[in-house]
Amino acid sequence: MSVTETFLTLLGGASAPPADLSAALVAQADGMLLGYLCRDTMPEGLEAARAAMAVSLYNRMGAEGEKSRDEGDGHSVS
Predict the structure, then answer these.
(1) In the prediction, which pLDDT does 76 show?
(2) 40: nearest Cα among 30, 55, 25
(3) CA–CA–CA angle 51, 8, 31 (5° rounding)
(4) Measured over all CA atoms, what is the biggest interatomic distance in the chain, rounded to whole angstroms?
(5) What distances in angstroms separate CA 19 from CA 41, 55, 69, one per listed residue?
(6) Dist. CA 72–CA 49, nearest whole Å
(7) Ordered DSSP codes for the chain
(8) Structure confidence at residue 30 (pLDDT)
(9) Number of neighbouring beta carbons within 10 Å of residue 33
(10) What is the pLDDT of residues 43-69, one digit of tens each?
């Protein structure tokens, strides 16, 4: 399975982003990983990490500049 296919699978029920956005997110994840590893080429065996990082980048889209986020109504269930 390709990194892009794994990325789309990891999104689960979310609607699939356009192919060019998927490719851009995987490319951005690759660039970040290469930077973290101080490498010019991607080592073997990082396909899952590449896809997971692309999912994280996708999930953060639109959240730039947020200072906080509340989810739910703040009440606990008894």
Answers:
(1) 56
(2) 30
(3) 30
(4) 53
(5) 23, 14, 29
(6) 30
(7) --HHHHHHHHTTTSPPPPHHHHHHHHHHHHHHHHHHHT-SSPPTT-HHHHHHHHHHHHHHTT-TT------S-SPPP-
(8) 97
(9) 16
(10) 999 999 999 999 999 989 876 666 666
Structure tokens at 58: 């996708």
Tell me how far CA of residue 44 lies from CA of 16, 32, 78, in angstroms. Answer: 26, 16, 49
User: Which amino acid type is present at position 3?
Assistant: V
Q: State which amino acid sits at residue 75.
A: H
Tokens of 30: 């690759």
